[in-house]
Specification:
The structure is a single chain. By secondary structure, the chain is α/β, with parallel strands linked by helices. The protein has 2 domains: about 240 residues, Spore Coat Polysaccharide Biosynthesis Protein SpsA, Chain A (Alpha-Beta Complex); about 50 residues, no CATH class. The protein is about 40% helix and about 20% strand. The protein has 12 helices and 12 strands. Strands 3-2-1-4-10-6-11-9 form an 8-stranded mixed beta sheet, sandwiched between helices. A 4-stranded mixed beta sheet has the order 5-12-7-8. Helix 6 crosses helix 8, helix 8 packs parallel to helix 9 and helix 11 packs antiparallel against helix 12. The two termini are about 30 Å apart. The mean pLDDT is about 95.
């Protein structure tokens, strides 16, 4: 089986103190990327000059510049230049350990059905610890209904996300008003979009992604400034946009049992969530109850057939 190629998109805005470390971590991968695309989003702190000094003559790195448009705009500019089979995103204040792409490739090279892989992250900087979906690798399956109905987030921060390029092109095909809304926290577009557009997801704990917490992290500032309601409202609007594109309607809820059974090892909490979705469908009360009970029974068996 032919090995897939990987494009790395590094997005930077005024992270001069960190961006070289991020780019170097992508270049140092034991599974070498096809290319490293660095998008500088109108930095004013000398980032662009520093990047030019380090990588201006490096054929492995492509520098893209432009006016400040925000994180989603930077994603789109980087993706437009990507040629790899798989696109991995890396924030300029984060970094990867040496074998990150090699571990991703072990999934993408052997599982043609997997469209989206996300990893755990190790917190560095002002915090320490680990964040991840689970302790072990899991085939998450399809997550359309869990995301559309419940707004469930099956993903990780930007630097731990990898998508097949064909999927990434669909996910980031967003109109200008969304680009303006998602100047920060645009990893929501990647995570929610991939789910609602029907991607099959896989969680792979690699221990290879360092996620830096510091005073200038956009996500933390966004939560404090926007508040819980506005953040959830923006996410719901985004999910609804993708759902409209896929022409989802109430009859899609009839597929709830099939989506739940696409998971390899669902836990009880997830079974309860899917049972709740099953009770909302358009079928008769008896049929909806049957589906909910079947989902709970499947969950009690840990997903075993």
């Amino acid at each position: 089986m032919a090995q897939l190629t990987f494009s790395v998109v590094v997005t930077n805005y005024n992270y001069r103190d960190f961006v070289v470390e991020a780019v170097n971590s992508a270049l140092a991968q034991s599974r070498a990327p096809l290319e490293v695309i660095v998008v500088d989003d109108g930095s004013t702190d000398g980032s662009l000059e520093l990047l030019g000094e380090h990588y201006g003559n490096d054929a492995r790195v492509r520098l893209i510049t432009g006016p400040n448009g925000g994180q989603l705009a930077a994603f789109q500019r980087g993706l437009a230049q990507a040629a790899g089979d798989v696109v991995c995103f890396l924030d300029a204040d984060d970094r990867w350990s040496t074998h990150y792409l090699r571990e991703l490739a072990a999934v993408f090279d052997t599982r043609a059905d997997i469209d989206f892989v996300f990893s755990d992250v190790q917190l560095i900087g002002n915090e320490s610890g680990r964040q991840g979906y689970a302790d072990e690798a899991q085939d998450i399956g399809y997550t359309v209904l869990a995301t559309w109905v419940r707004g469930h987030w099956y993903g990780a921060p930007t630097s731990a996300l990898a998508l097949r390029r064909t999927l990434a092109n669909r996910v980031l095909d967003l109109p200008p008003d969304f680009v303006a809304q998602w100047r920060i926290s645009a990893d929501n577009c990647l995570v929610f979009g991939a789910s609602v557009l029907g991607a099959k997801k896989y969680f792979l704990p690699t221990g290879q992604v360092d996620y830096r917490i510091h005073g200038r992290n956009g996500w933390w500032h966004d939560q404090k400034k926007a508040g819980e309601f506005l953040a959830k409202f923006r996410s719901r609007s985004l999910i609804n946009f993708y759902a409209d594109r896929m022409h989802l309607d109430v009859h899609t809820l009839d597929l709830v049992k099939q989506e739940f059974k696409s998971r390899a090892r669902p836990d009880w909490k997830e079974a309860c969530m899917y049972a709740d979705i099953a009770l909302r469908g358009p079928a008769t009360c008896w049929k909806r109850l049957q589906r909910a009970v079947a989902i709970l029974a499947h969950g009690m068996r840990g997903g075993k057939k």
